[in-house]
């Protein structure tokens, strides 16, 4: 006989205790398969107390709906030390807990079993003890009464150690045998303290359930879905608003009140108008969202203009602008003389092209003559290129007065790039002929010419974008056209990042000129670069592959920071990583460790786990792992993982020479990044030019124990410490919100605002112009959203059904759309 409810079972919890919860229990109990009675709290001694929904209030529904599996939900309210005490049986806590489970089932014999909701279990190292705890719970219940059920509430995992909330103790495959059903709590990706977004975004849900059904019995699994949403206040900082987090939880009906103009941000009373608004439908995530009291809204791509090096990017459908590197911005005023690098005369070994000259040895020289028509004060700028770290000096003379241009900073951003530098500032030149000559220095520096001008200046530039604000009046609940009472605020949604070492070289192997011999050298083995043959991109995805040692063609490195992202093919083994001289920092597949060697001596290690990639996935979906080291003097720090986690620190002797990538056997590498050991580049500051012309700076963190380079906006640590020690404020990898002061704008007019990036790697995501009394981003769940995912659970992943957190928060129309369970 066909089971028409297969995949369509519905579990809920009695957490809310509000009138709507009891209404749903009364009127729609026939839609519920399982109810977790959210009443029982365990403490760190293992004792269970009744603190949630009163059992007496539930008895009428328990009697009315005998088909429902009424489970006693036992929770620790996410208190980590309770989970730890139970897991480790501290002072007999687990033993007590198991007896308490029997006690409450004896007390309420009508229960169908227990629902175990334990959270904050810690890292992967706790998995064995956690597995034993759930095994013992399951066996205890079944020994008491084999007909009693055990449901376990599990965190959302996209793989082993794949928790976004640090719940890596949970390994689905290990727990499959210790439950009758499992409700995966796949809600909470967005929360009160996160950036606004869907509570359960599609990508997260797909990752969780693709993984879950591969290691657990699908017919045991309930897909956890939220009935609630969040309203994030984005018109000011949480501390100024007197709140801890900007998000406030909303039931469906609270969201509806925002949509229909019942609520506002001035205590649901004047002076803020009561404005009904429309919601947007996020068709990718299948969820509605809205912008209460926002008068204008735009994404990064909506800029009316932007200037290179700003570039367009897309991530998770968010259209942003960002800059990956700074360009030199040079201004000259009036240009009187503009010469390229072809000289009037030269001596010795000189290389001349159509636009530049390079001296081939120390005895070579070249001269350029120019005419000044009117005596006066002038600026003179020369255009140079230092092609490599060992081609770093040239002497330039003006009428016999020489100046040496040289560069020894490995992180200097203009290496291998043509740049303008000052030869003379405000120099007095008589009418007549003058001469500029180049000589000496280091062979190989390229001279592209010079300019005589009225005023030369130069600075590194990360780009800027202009946006047009167009506030217009809204119609309130009474049909009156309204606008903000006090004025507007402008909020910028930006993505910043933690500082990284000041960049020396970024190599992703995507250039068409593969491993040019003037930059790279093979010290050992065989190396090549694979590039995606089907890509139409100018710089297609590529992988370095081979074995041995590949190095930059320069042996003068000492203190550096080097990072590689690599994968082990299915037939590979041994070690792969980065090296400096005789220091080798690697991932060792055979030992499953991060290791550091000097010569043949193992200096340090850290146990971890990583896997090979089958050949079919090597190009499109490789298992990439990050390994890096930072050497300062005689100390080496070793890091691994996507978050660049410090694993250990060791002392070395010496350590200098070539730097590059090394592998015992064939591996692939998609990134090799070389940075300065002491100097950091921040990814945090941007300036805003507001409509009144005032410029405000945002995002820069206060630091101690550092020295700033104001020209390039980088800083060096004064002592051998981790960068994080220099600041008290952290930078989230989530979107941040920055807020203008009160803006006196008039509805009906248009205003320009300009965002000027001072650092790179910042994303200009969205701008919100809203009522200064309050505006927000609201995400919520409605019947269409929940029904969509219920169908996915049933037909795509063939799960048991859905588990909705929690009863009393939902759109009540949902129950009419779900099948009866009896």
TrEMBL record:
One biological process term in Gene Ontology: carbohydrate metabolic process
The GH18 domain, residue ranges: 6-321
Swiss-Prot/TrEMBL keywords: Hydrolase
Record's protein name: Putative glycosyl hydrolase
Tagged with keyword Disulfide bond: no
Annotated TM spans: none
Gene Ontology MF terms in the entry: hydrolase activity
Protein's organism: Thermoanaerobacter thermohydrosulfuricus WC1
């Amino acid at each position: 006989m066909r089971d028409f409810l297969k995949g369509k079972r519905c579990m809920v919890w009695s957490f809310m205790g509000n009138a709507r919860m009891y209404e749903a229990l009364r009127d729609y109990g026939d839609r519920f398969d399982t109810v977790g009675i959210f009443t029982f709290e365990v403490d760190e001694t293992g004792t269970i107390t009744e603190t949630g929904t009163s059992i007496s209030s539930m008895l009428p529904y328990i009697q009315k709906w005998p088909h429902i599996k009424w489970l006693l939900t036992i929770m620790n309210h996410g208190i980590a030390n309770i989970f730890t005490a139970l897991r480790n049986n501290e002072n007999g806590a687990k033993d007590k807990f198991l007896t308490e489970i029997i006690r409450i089932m004896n007390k309420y014999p009508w229960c169908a079993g227990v629902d175990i909701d334990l959270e904050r279990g810690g890292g992967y190292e706790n998995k064995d003890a956690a597995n034993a705890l759930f095994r013992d719970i399951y066996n205890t219940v079944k020994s008491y009464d084999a007909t009693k059920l055990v449901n376990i509430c599990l965190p959302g995992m996209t793989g082993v150690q794949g928790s976004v909330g640090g719940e890596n103790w949970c390994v689905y495959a290990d727990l499959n045998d210790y439950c009758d059903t499992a409700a995966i709590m796949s809600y909470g990706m967005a929360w009160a303290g996160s950036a606004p977004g869907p509570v359960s975004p599609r990508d997260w849900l797909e990752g969780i359930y693709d993984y879950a059904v591969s290691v657990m019995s699908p017919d045991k699994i309930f897909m956890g879905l939220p009935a609630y949403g969040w309203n994030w206040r984005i018109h000011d900082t949480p501390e100024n608003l007197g709140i801890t987090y900007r998000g406030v939880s909303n039931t469906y009906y609270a969201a509806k009140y925002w949509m229909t103009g019942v609520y506002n941000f001035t205590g649901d009373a004047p002076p803020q108008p009561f404005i009904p608004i429309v919601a947007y439908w996020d068709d990718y995530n299948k969820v509605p969202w809205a912008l209460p009291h926002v008068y204008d809204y735009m994404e990064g791509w909506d800029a009316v203009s932007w200037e290179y090096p700003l570039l367009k990017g897309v991530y998770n459908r968010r259209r942003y602008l960002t800059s990956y590197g700074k360009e030199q911005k040079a201004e000259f005023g009036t240009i009187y003389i503009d010469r390229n690098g072809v000289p009037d005369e030269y001596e010795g070994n000189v290389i001349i092209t159509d636009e530049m000259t390079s001296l081939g040895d120390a005895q070579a020289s070249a001269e350029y003559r120019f005419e000044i028509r009117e005596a006066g004060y002038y600026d003179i700028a020369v255009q140079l290129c230092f092609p490599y770290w060992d081609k770093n000096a040239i002497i330039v003379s003006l009428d016999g007065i020489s100046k040496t241009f040289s560069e020894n900073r490995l992180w200097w951003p203009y290496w291998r790039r043509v740049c303008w530098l000052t030869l003379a500032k405000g120099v007095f030149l008589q009418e007549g002929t003058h001469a500029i000559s180049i000589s000496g220095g280091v062979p190989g520096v390229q001279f592209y010419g010079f300019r005589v001008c009225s005023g030369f200046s130069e600075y590194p530039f990360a780009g800027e974008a202009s946006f047009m604000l167009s506030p217009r009046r809204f119609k309130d609940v009474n049909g009156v056209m309204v606008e903000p009472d006090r004025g507007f605020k402008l909020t910028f949604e930006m993505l910043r990042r933690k500082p990284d070492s000041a960049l020396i070289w970024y190599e992703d192997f995507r250039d068409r000129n593969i491993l040019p011999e003037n930059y790279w050298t093979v010290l050992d083995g065989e190396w090549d670069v694979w590039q995606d043959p089907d890509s139409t991109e100018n710089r297609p995805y590529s992988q370095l592959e081979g074995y041995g040692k590949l190095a930059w063609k320069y042996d003068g490195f000492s203190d550096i920071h080097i990072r590689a992202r690599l994968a082990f093919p299915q037939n590979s083994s041994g070690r792969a990583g980065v090296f400096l001289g005789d220091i080798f920092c690697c991932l060792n597949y055979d030992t499953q460790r991060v290791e550091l060697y000097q010569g043949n001596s193992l200096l340090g290690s850290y146990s971890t786990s990583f896997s090979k990639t089958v050949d079919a996935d090597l190009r499109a979906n490789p298992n990439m792992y990050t390994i890096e080291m930072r050497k300062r003097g005689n100390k080496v720090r070793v890091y691994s993982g996507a978050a660049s986690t410090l694993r250990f620190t060791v002392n070395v002797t010496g350590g200098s020479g070539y730097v590059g990538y090394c592998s015992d056997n064939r591996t692939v590498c998609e990134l090799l990044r070389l940075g300065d050991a002491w100097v950091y580049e921040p990814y945090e500051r941007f300036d805003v030019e507001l409509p009144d012309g005032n410029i405000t700076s945002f995002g820069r963190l206060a630091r101690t124990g550092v020295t700033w380079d104001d020209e390039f906006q980088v800083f060096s640590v004064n002592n051998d410490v981790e960068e994080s020690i220099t600041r008290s404020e952290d930078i989230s990898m989530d979107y941040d919100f920055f807020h203008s002061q009160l803006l006196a704008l008039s509805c009906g007019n248009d205003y320009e605002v300009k965002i000027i990036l001072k650092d790179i790697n910042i994303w200009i995501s969205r701008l919100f112009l809203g009522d200064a009394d309050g505006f927000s981003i609201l995400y919520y769940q409605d019947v269409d959203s929940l029904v969509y995912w219920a169908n996915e659970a049933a037909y795509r992943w063939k799960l048991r059904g859905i588990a909705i957190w929690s009863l009393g928060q939902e759109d009540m129309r949902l129950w009419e759309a779900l099948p009866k369970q009896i």
